[in-house]
């Protein structure tokens, strides 16, 4: 790139002063400054666009890498699940063919299984087993309260007489 030192800038300034003249020099310098600012902004935008495209390419590569890893993991898991299910099916089929130990010994003894009979419970015990929060939520009264006490409980508080004075 071109190297501009102080001596070269001073030489360019004196030539511009002689050629353009002192009346037009400030307007020309302002115009040149605006043009240089536009050029710098344009270069910055181009750099930013190039950086975005590079990052986009890197993200696309990373995306393909992650997708490949996920696909490989899925294949590995499905193979393992298939292997385990085959082993289970093989073990299950082997167990279906084997008889019970009593039948294998030659005897056929059978242990009777008692039928399930539900226990009859007292309805008072059931009522007491309901949680307190459930009773409160559904309005089940758990304590006896007189009508006057109930009215006093839900009456809005009275405003004090001193506040109005």
Automatic annotation (TrEMBL):
It is a single-pass membrane protein. Gene3D superfamilies: 1.20.5.3310. It is found in: Cell membrane; Membrane. Residues 138-165 are annotated as: Disordered. It holds the Pfam family TatA_B_E. Transmembrane segments: none annotated. Keywords: Cell inner membrane, Cell membrane, Membrane, Protein transport, Translocation, Transmembrane, Transmembrane helix, Transport. The Tat system comprises two distinct complexes: a TatABC complex, containing multiple copies of TatA, TatB and TatC subunits, and a separate TatA complex, containing only TatA subunits. Substrates initially bind to the TatABC complex, which probably triggers association of the separate TatA complex to form the active translocon. Part of the twin-arginine translocation (Tat) system that transports large folded proteins containing a characteristic twin-arginine motif in their signal peptide across membranes. Together with TatC, TatB is part of a receptor directly interacting with Tat signal peptides. TatB may form an oligomeric binding site that transiently accommodates folded Tat precursor proteins before their translocation. Belongs to the TatB family. HAMAP family: TatB. This is Sec-independent protein translocase protein TatB. It comes from Caldimonas aquatica. The lineage of its organism: Bacteria, Pseudomonadati, Pseudomonadota, Betaproteobacteria, Burkholderiales. The gene is tatB.
